């Protein structure tokens, strides 16, 4: 019916506090629109996993090359803070899933509440990350002030890796563990922030009543994204904190 | 192919001049904000063509510099920048996005009987990311240029005091442009096929684009993280690729080629798709081995993930890995050969029309045979050690990238030009230009095969005088090739102003895009197509409507 380009398919709003949804003109049915977006998003998630795949490959490669460095480096991380963050992210994945459920059952207030809790989880995660990074900074494992300082070819001293207390003195290339730790957790942290931003955007739409049983596609997709962010951490935590 | 739809939307045609996607709206903003896949495709066409002309200009500069053994035009440092610019522009701004971005965008939904790609906004974003990438690449020239070659090999790319971070960022952004195009096409093929358009009724160009898209989605992210790590390495000395810091430059090569070998097939598979369409239409004969060509596209996509090590035979990787990579490299020749033989079998005893798209197609068939077979030669371990990093390699991949992919792109452009614009170019000039390009191309690269086999290393700004004659022959060839391309640009652009009407179905194609009005309206088809017959069934061709001039 939408083929002639004049009669758009509209999903009615289930109540006065909700808005109807107009299916994009090039789709024939809401199901086609839903499935297209979902397939596209799964493919996007695959690209995210491959992007991190390069980092994981680098992790395994150097773990194999310098096992002592990685054993000792892992000991410098605080596994209890890591475990706390794992718990926080797992809980936030649950609140997100409940949020999607709330959208599917047209419960606007509940959706807003669960999304709020998920964002709170993201903020706690980043706060704990900040505490961890500060500790690394204090030990000179990652001196953030000197992160972009030029490398001195004469002394071979990497400016951001000072290791004030000599914890990593006995192993080759101690900075490599922390370089990989920093790169992986920072890129993951960026994803946490992006995810939190997306959930805030969902809350904005939810407040206007855009999402309900007839149309909850964006909530579903952002939920998938959030679970992926969680999933990547599930791999990062044991590899960085526990394997050593 | 569709029987219940009047071949050319007779109703719409009878109603007199209609608005098509070109004239439905005018003004800069109507293009900059368009979600119409055909308009986005045209913007891509303009963009990649400009990138191609820039890259071609750099190539001519390289060839002119190499006229004399000591170099004629530049300092050695400047020469390094010019050949790097040639490679980077051609690979990242032209060859990878050219066919999917332009012809793919315009034709994929038409061939499937859809009104647009599945995610039109993402499609526009993908074009804008291409623009940003192109702008960053150009900025990198201003910020001091880059002389690493398009491969950015570490550790040199970590130490050189040039704009590697900027060009790295450009590649990262262009990568996402490519990923989003691929993602969009996969979803479109899965979800927006017209009723009756089964997988094995899809035109082979669509199959080729589908296989390409799989590679774009699954390989490009690895390049993204690789260039990002190079940037991090330069900015804060991560140490992963830097041997001074305990890193491993060969790891970079593995990462880089894990993307960049599949990228070769991202470039060439769409070209295969174009050729599969054209051999059929211009021989007026169904494609020989349709299913095998379709499956071979997928086979090439899968195997191409497992052959990256053949770029690294002299890197010191494990000998056993080299055996495997060499074997798999031979293996990938099998699906490729299936295509080549099927095309030749399609032309065989066909009703061949030697018009310009077909001439370009025949040029492709000849050039690609050489380009493909020299690839097998390079895949052999012992021979590779001798030929590694010589002009033989340069000639081989130019036979594929320029002689095959660019020529197939030209073929497709000539074939669908009357469909897209409703106007015809000067056929006589087109045939002349095709001849000049074919002669010029071979004159450029046959000498490079010979001097490569005699040891001329690639990328050098100067050379020993023994190679002078070969270099001069190659430079003359490049000038001839440049003239051919200039002529092509001239008559194609001129056709837009001369406005000689094309016919509704100019070549007599039977795939769905020829059932839409010419040029297509915004919604592509005025009546939703329903497919009831097999693909390439020329008995369904309606000669009367086919020859009706464009309104």
Secondary structure category of chain A: mainly alpha
Helix content of chain A: 55-70%
> CATH superfamily of chain B, called what?
Cytochrome c oxidase-like, subunit I domain
Biggest sheet statistics of chain A: 2 strands, antiparallel
Give the overall shape of chain A, derived from the CA principal axes: elongated
Structure summary, number of beta strands of chain B:
0
Largest interface comes to: A-B, 44 and 45 residues
Order of helices and strands of chain B: HHHHHHHHHHHHHHHHH
As for the number of domains of chain B, it is 1
Strand content of chain B: under 5%
Assembly of the depicted chains? heterodimer
CATH topology of chain B: Cytochrome C Oxidase, Chain A
Low-pLDDT windows of residues of chain B: 1-15
**What CATH architecture of chain A do you see?**
Up-down Bundle
The CATH topology of chain A is: Four Helix Bundle (Hemerythrin (Met), subunit A)
What amount of the residues of chain A lies in strands? under 5%
Q: Give the domain tally of chain A.
A: 1
Query: What is the overall pLDDT average of chain B?
Result: 94
Classified by CATH, the class of chain B is Mainly Alpha
Largest sheet of chain B: none
